[in-house]
Amino acid sequence: MAFDVSLPARGTTVRTVLAASAPEDAALLIPVAQGEDGIEVPVTALAPRGLLEALVAVGAKGTEGEMTRLLLDGHLVLAFGLGDAADIDDEAVRRGAGAAARAPRRRRGGAGA
Questions:
Q1: What are the residue boundaries of the Peptidase M17 leucyl aminopeptidase N-terminal domain, all occurrences included (predicted)?
Q2: Range of the domain at 57
């Protein structure tokens, strides 16, 4: 459906360009879940080598709302908990991703640090 708009356009035009890759210093956001035998990484294609072992070593559980920050091979990894692996749904992913997006702005020593 086309609209005929005759009002004058003023202001700045925004242009979005998508990059082919993430910046070198970008944080990697990884969803994790609480499984029967401990923490699980549901999307293994995203996980860097050694992530699961590092999460176990620092005591991460994958519980809903849990944020675990790690440095792996010089890269910041933010693992965000989705809760029980059997109960993951769209809402759990939305909440987890939202918590992960807010995490880098939290000050050291604050909630989720």
A1: 51-103
A2: 28-104
Q: What are phi and psi of 87, to 5 degrees?
A: -110, 10
CATH number, domain containing residue 41:
3.40.220.10
Strand arrangement, sheet containing 75-84: 38-40, 28-35, 75-84, 67-72
Burial class (CB in 10 A: 0-12, 13-18, 19+), 13: exposed
Query: How far apart are alpha carbons 43 and 20 in whole angstroms?
Result: 21
Give average pLDDT by consecutive 10-residue segment, the chain, 113 residues.
Answer: 61 77 80 92 82 94 92 88 92 88 60 42
Q: How far apart are CA 96 and CA 82, in angstroms?
A: 6
